[in-house]
Amino acid sequence: MIDSKGESHFSYFGAAFWQIGNAWKRNAVAVLKPHNITIVQFLVLDAIFRLQSQIKYVSQVEVAELLHSNPMVISSVVRMLKKQGLLSVRVHPKDSRAKHVKLTENGAHILRESQALI
Q1: For the chain, how big is the Rg over CA atoms in Å?
Q2: Is 69 in contact with 32 (CB distance < 8 Å)?
Q3: Are the C-beta atoms of residues 88 and 99 closer than 8 Å to each other?
Q4: CA–CA distance from 19 to each of 3, 40, 78, 92 (Å)?
Q5: How far are the Cα atoms of 3, 12, 69, 71, 86 from residue 76, in angstroms, in the given order?
Q6: What are phi and psi of 9, to 5 degrees?
Q7: Which tens digit of pLDDT belongs to each residue from 60-104?
């Protein structure tokens, strides 16, 4: 739809979505900062949590598929989360080529606290 000045109303919707997205990002960064994790790390923790409720052994590939992400990116994020003590990583019991990832108690605690605020 074009208004009397010849401008499309759709551009206003785009600007509104952009502003909403930026507001969500500011809030998420503020919530996650005390836990020293990024939004991407939060999303990986959340994906693992959701997958753990459905399947016993969660692989990095399954996390990547759920997030529609590159497995190499997920692998990098998983390494950082492991280093921070938020995940445990072991050889997958059903596929020795895969990595089984699981939230640690601290990882689950931080995820619960963050989920409530984001």
Answers
A1: 18
A2: no
A3: no
A4: 22, 20, 30, 42
A5: 48, 37, 12, 9, 14
A6: -70, -20
A7: 999 999 999 999 999 999 999 999 999 999 999 999 999 999 999
